[in-house]
Write a structure and sequence with these properties.
This protein is mainly alpha-helical and about 55 residues long. It has helices at about 5-25, 30-54. Helix 1 runs antiparallel to helix 2 (about 30-54).
């Protein structure tokens, strides 16, 4: 997989996580721990994207 394709895939995953976080925050039944885990995953993706895109 080329670097550009890898970055594109990471950005897609980041966007999916953003939507999941937004949905989870709107749902009163979602556990705060689950939301925090999603946010950590999103941050790790953002850091990897920044590192590779640097």
């Amino acid at each position: 997989m080329s670097l550009d394709a890898h970055l594109q895939e990471l950005r897609k995953k980041h966007e999916i996580l953003s939507r999941k976080i937004e949905e989870a925050q709107r749902s009163p039944s979602t556990d705060e721990l689950a939301i925090r885990d999603l946010k950590k995953q999103k941050l790790r993706l953002k850091e990897e994207i920044s590192r590779l895109d640097g």
